[in-house]
Amino acid sequence: MNWQALQNIDRRWIYLTLGVVFIISLIMGKAQTGVILPTVNDLYLAVENVPADRIIFINTTFAPNTLAESGNQARAIIRHAAISRHKFAIMAVDPQGANLGLIIAKDVAKEYNLKYGEDWISFGYQLPVMAFYKSFNINVLEAVKQDAVQGKAANAENFPMLANLKKPGDIGLMVEVSASNSLFDWIQIVQPTTTPRLKLGYACTGVMASEAYPYLDSKQLVGMMPGLKGAADYEQLVDEKEKTLVAAGVLQHPYESDKAIIKYIVSPARILMFTQSNAHVVVILLIILGNIGYLVTRYRAKKKQLEEAAG
Amino acid sequence: MTILNELQGAGELEYLFSPLDNTRDFIIVVLAMIVFFIIVLRLLNHLPPVAKKWLTIICTFLAGLFFIFEYFWPTSELPDGSRGNWVTPMQEPVSNFVINVTIWMIFLGVISLCYVHGKRLFSRLPGWHNSLAFFLAFIGMTVVGLVSELGKADNGITGTMSVIYDSLYTGLLVNLDSAMFALLAFYIASASYRAFRVRTVEAALLMISALVIMLGLVSFGIAATSFIPVDSHFAIFRLEQLSTWLMQYINMPAQRAVTIGVMVGSLAMAMRLWLSLERGAFFSQEG
Question: Do B188 and A283 touch (CB under 8 A)?
């Protein structure tokens, strides 16, 4: 057998294999039920523990390229706020994220009969400059200026839900759904000025998770939803809570993602996780194959060398 | 400080930085801006390179000084009951000023893009068709976006534009952007197949860690070690727990060390920029 060939599989075969696995998995996709990550559970509990009179800020700082991860994360957290009857605000320091966050929030609000301006609000795009964060520290509403849907000044007269909001410390929880390093601006500029400390949650793409662990350890982050796995876990927790609320008659029916107006994130994270799991298995198998080829070739080369040396 | 207090007391600062609510003020401000820019630009053109250099250094230093004062100056109770120092009341106007300046930077970016692509298109340089695509996309999205946003109506031309905008944005841009990013999956699969080889002990450790973390995130991996009871002494060997352990106890200290190093470097870099010690393109060209 040509073990050398295992080390040099043509990349087109790799692409084809992965493509076929993706297509079949997406067609046959079924919701995965996995072991919940501890950091996801912490974030879920942080949302649960937000006092009723406090607003949850959900920052949707991402672009369409990470929609499968970030879009599902945003939807899961907004759904949780909605079924827990927490008031929430959407904001973004990315212009596309502001639009996408608004679309997702509108969809969830429609599903759960939430009223704009009473149950939720959007502050749209905010320029991520030092001056904005400094201004945010002094007065949240003056920093964000107006809402993004009706264009009215952000104050308690126009929106009674903002009555208790002045300083960042008045925010019940801020969740940064991000595909960039925007979280660190909140940690470095805003969080140190608040007493008690502003509670920050983080929903990042999978590759960004490793750099956030020091902040979890120092309790600067109350929880984290890493990548699609995090979104799937959170979705599972929200689905379970929703099921109990439907059974108790509080909600009429569970969230129907297939009727969502956001066509491009129709598949819930738990179904997409099925595809990602299969792709991971393919990658792992490829790595194992490559290493088998490498080790056998090296063993044979050494054996041949010894035989030649022996005579 | 006294002058600032007097200005604040008289409401002059507030007036200077308040949104305009009448046409007369708006026209005055626009005219003042035009005159200001003409004077500044002419002045800059006639200044010798050394003077331009010092002007840039002084402006950079003063701009940085504001944030230094705001952060390090001792605080006391302000008239509105909050804590701050004498610079704190200027935060809001400075924030608005910076936001406006940044918006102008976007405008400059657009001009630069149009200049580069316009030159290529009209001179028929290689790749001119890409520049044509840029102009079509740029003008198309701007016109459709503005018309659909300005009207906010569901019928007539605005309604049609809104549908076109939605098709272009959610139907085209979102999918193209996602598709471009999705290609990464294929490259990563191919790259990891070639890169993860157990050539050395370090490479073996890296590969094993990567496999454990990947397996710990997928149901296949979790199922593989699910026979180990969660409450047993060997629970740490369940792949999902091993994966979490690696992230929390191996990755975290390393990340912390990297972060501290990066932050010390950033501080040094910020100081060099603030004090104009960093010789960038401007100074190297101007001499």
Answer: yes
